[in-house]
Design brief:
Elements: E1 2-3, H1 8-19, E2 27-28, H2 34-43, E3 52-54, E4 59-61, H3 64-75, H4 83-92, H5 96-106, H6 114-131, E5 137-141, H7 146-157, E6 163-166, H8 178-191, E7 198-201, E8 204-207, H9 209-218, H10 221-224, E9 236-237
Parallel strand pairs: 1-2, 5-6, 8-9
Antiparallel strand pairs: 3-4, 5-7, 7-8
Helix pairs in contact: 1-3, 5-8, 6-8
Length: 242
């Protein structure tokens, strides 16, 4: 990799190379350096850094964003979500118990006719049981949730086919669909999790992004779930949930 000190984009690429334990040769191409002239010759006149040459795939590229995406794609198990979401997830965790209380209330659990509410939730559960067995990977999402967007990005980076089921724009009133309100409450009763994203593999709930999908990918248990089919009509709970 051609780089020089003081360039923040070079630093970002070096950090990823170190994070992934990729052996590489660093060529300092600062002003006045012979390596800078060498880089210009390779690129046909450009001295833009960072510049990566990978003989393993016969690839060359200069944009730090493209390099980082390439490194994760080719040398990592998966492309991780943006770092700030991890901090946001930790901040939101204390609120998840509140969400579990609000979900059934939002679905109408406080109405006088309890039987009507119970019938709606039962219907939602039946629909969920069909949906989670309709594809190998099923993920429930909100369209505006950055956590859901990143979860979809992680799956896409692995070239995994999945079925996305959106419950609306977000969980708050007027943004979540009527069906989404019922499914959110039903998911809470079935799995203990009302927050999204919610990932199911082969009919099994593995939870959300940081407390389900990422740990399963990191410990290698995610792929093994494909081999363990859940019985039709039965939700199998695994791990902890967001």
């Amino acid at each position: 990799m051609y780089s020089y000190e003081g360039n923040q984009f070079c630093r970002l690429v070096r950090e990823v190379l170190s994070e992934l334990d990729i052996p590489y040769e660093l060529k300092s191409a600062g002003k006045g350096s012979s390596k800078r002239a060498e880089l210009s010759e390779i690129t046909g006149g450009s001295t833009q850094c960072p510049f990566l040459i990978d003989p393993n795939t016969d690839s060359q590229m200069s944009e730090s964003k493209d390099i980082i995406e390439y490194l994760y794609k080719n040398y990592a198990t998966f492309t991780p979500p943006i770092e700030i979401l991890g901090y946001l997830s930790s901040a939101v965790t204390p609120l998840k118990s509140v969400y579990k209380v609000l979900a059934p209330l939002q679905a109408g659990s406080g109405r006088e006719d309890k039987s009507e509410y119970e019938a709606e939730i039962a219907a939602a559960k039946a629909e969920i049981e069909k949906e989670i067995l309709s594809d190998e990977v099923v993920i429930y999402t909100y369209s505006l949730s950055p956590f859901c967007t990143e979860a979809l990005g992680v799956l896409s980076s692995l070239d995994i086919d999945y079925k996305e089921i959106s419950l609306g724009l977000e969980w708050v009133p007027f943004l979540i669909s009527d069906e989404g309100v019922q499914k959110r409450a039903a998911l809470g009763e079935m799995t203990g999790q009302t927050s999204l994203p919610h990932v199911f593999v082969a009919g099994k709930s593995i939870g959300g992004l940081y407390e389900g999908l990422l740990p399963a990918l990191e410990d290698g248990s995610f792929q093994s779930l494909f081999k363990e089919k859940a019985p039709i009509g039965k939700v199998v709970l695994e791990g902890s949930f967001e």
